[in-house]
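ENTRY TYPE: paired fold submission
RECORD: A
CONTENT: sequence, then structure tokens
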Amino acid sequence: QLVESGGGLVQTGGSLRLSCVASGSILSFNAMGWYRQAPGKQRELVAFIGSGGWTHYAGSVEGRVTISTDSAKNTMYLEMNSLKPEDTAVYYCYGDLGQGATLWGQGTQVTVSS
């Protein structure tokens, strides 16, 4: 099970840190990531982190967000800075267990006011 938190309402230019807590060890995941879905749009990748620590960011957020994990806390984070109204979406965390098995969180709303 994955549970997100940290969403909320923030002004343009503000910052938020999202957390995703796993019910078990995050070391069991081959990779973890954050996706987001804005109203009327498809879910899109925001950032990804592999078990070896490699990261990938969507072009729309690169330079403004940082993905990280803390295996001692079984938690993945998404630090978001310089937020824009177009970042408004429900943010979901994702875990890849391999062999086609995945886990998704329930989502946390991020709203950026202009």
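RECORD: B
CONTENT: sequence, then structure tokens
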Amino acid sequence: VQLQASGGGLVQAGGSLRLSCAKSGRTFSTYFMGWFRQAPGKEREFVAAISMSGGWPNYADSVKGRFTISRDNAKNTVYLQMNSLKPEDTAVYYCGVDMDGQGFGMDYWGKGTQVTVSS
């Protein structure tokens, strides 16, 4: 499984960014794709995940109402629309695939993409 993430960058507080993660390689009948993030000096934490076969997405409390995860099954791609960004959202964002859970523990990881929110 290969995961290619893109869309990070530098944005001012209150701004928006959209991350994309495209999956290629091995296929699965049902699985979750999602995002974690890791800020300097902190552990990697869950952000959001979505089932690629339907159902409600999962969000961390810290991003509910500001971030939206969506999918394009035809492209094997998930998106993370991040609005009302805060400096504390600054982190490296990693996308992943969870084969047998609900996106809280990934089996495959992509390379991270840096998101920096300036105050």
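NOTES ON RECORD B: The mean pLDDT is 95. The two ends are 37 Å apart (CA to CA).
STATUS: closed
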